[in-house]
């Protein structure tokens, strides 16, 4: 009987300790939740409410002035898929986002590897590539507009004329204008992403390379089997930033080409602003914003899924 009483007392004591532990954890969770309230409030005010309003206006013919807009249902969405200018802008936006992401990644990784080596003026080279990426894309667009001007007064065309060659319609030809926007977008972002990769390279233990050299691995094998797998987290972050930024791009094409010639370099963001603010077709602009938000979410979640598989494969 004594042993049973002691056993029951131990069980009761354990249950009491467990209850107190649960209560303590609950109090900690409640205390921590108070710190989340400001963040939740900001999210609701700045994101959730505007998104709900955008969804509502996308189903109306609101012009920005009428206090009682008419209900049109899915008519605005149908107009989007029948508008050639919007579809052309969507196509260029996707091409820009994909190509800039791939080109910057392919160029920035070898550049970061070179900047990680020991050579004379290494710190100056690192600073140079980084500070070239500091100015905004809008400023880059205005500067490169002077360089790539299709007129004879353009910097490159002036050089071609002095060499006895014909001028090139850099920004007045649709294909050349698209290529120029993509080129400037890549040029403006390489330095920053190379610096990002450089930070990850410096965190790789040197012992891995020393052991690989002892085992007879050459530079190419070390890059493939050590550098790339260790850079996988950096590649995921870099490509996520490039893809999301490329899909939202507005400032560079607008300042470099104005979306032209025609609608060759028009983007989805520019189409939303032009339709909403420029033409006061807020219903169509809101519908395009909703579709663009959905497309962005799909692309980002797909990218996160692919990145997760890559990380499980190499890390």
From TrEMBL:
InterPro entries: ABC_transporter_permease, MetI-like. Keywords: Cell membrane, Membrane, Transmembrane, Transmembrane helix, Transport. Residues 90-303 form the ABC transmembrane type-1 domain. It is found in: Cell membrane. The chain crosses the membrane at residues 30-49, 94-115, 127-147, 176-201, 222-243, 284-306. Signal peptide: none annotated. Pfam families: BPD_transp_1. CDD domains: TM_PBP2. The keyword Transmembrane applies. It is a multi-pass membrane protein. PANTHER family: ABC TRANSPORTER PERMEASE PROTEIN (PTHR30193), INNER MEMBRANE ABC TRANSPORTER PERMEASE PROTEIN YCJO (PTHR30193:SF37). Belongs to the binding-protein-dependent transport system permease family. This is Sugar ABC transporter permease. It comes from Bifidobacterium phasiani.
